[in-house]
Amino acid sequence: MINTSGRVLKALAAALALVMALSVLLLLPGCTQDKQGAAPTGQEAGYTFTDDMGNTVTVESCDAVVACMGSFANCWELAGGSL
Hints:
Layout: H1 5-27, E1 47-50, E2 56-59, H2 70-78
Antiparallel strand pairs: 1-2
């Protein structure tokens, strides 16, 4: 009887090592800093969006924050915001 379990385990270990190495190579580019993004200028300091009617709205600053759900309020405060 030939003992092939050692060969099978070595092949599985090699395949697992290859998969892990490829995973690391695919995930590492996400750790780099964005070099194309520039600091916003005075003209870009607001938040611009398009509403449901198709109007473009620019909000310069928000004076108040409203959280409609308690869990959202908790997350907002944990992130450093105030209500």
